[in-house]
Amino acid sequence: MLAGGRSARFGSDKLQAELDGVPLLHHAVLRIAEIADDVVVVLPPSAGGEGLPPGARVANDATEGEGPLAGLHAGLLAAAGSDAAVVIGGDMPDVRTPVVAEMLRVLGEAPVDAVVLAEGERPRPLPLVVRTGPAADAVHSLLHVGRRRLRDVVDVLRTAVIDEGTWTALDPERRTLLDVDEPEDLTR
Length: 188
Known about the structure:
Helices cover about 30% and strands about 20% of the residues. It is of the alpha/beta class. About 40% of the residues are buried.
């Protein structure tokens, strides 16, 4: 789970903002814990992870401000013992487990290294399900040449895109793609 951003548009630490009386980050951690045995939360270099829900592990970005791809690299290194990793943002409080289960099913059955969801004609970079080893190698190579966007890893890996009709049948309200960028997003 990527949680190392600066919350610039939000105006304060959005991951600590409360949603239904619980910090936003906790919602995302608890959602992924419904489907994953190991939840890794990637935080800024100096963050310790105090107050995370039980069972969540912390991985730290190696350097401040290197972007989401560097955070993904830290998370993949921490999850190196797993065959697959589910990647979401810490600001995605309502990812639906049936959608993630479908993404994992596709990853298990197709000759691909990543699975994403389509929104209209475009693949979304999050949520993202990857084969841990190939994704870590690809991310390392991208970082080495100065690339920093999550979309870059989707572009270089063999990626399956689940069409909008398929995943929205599992999540008709499209809650899986909800992310919080501004305070008003908390009321959505």
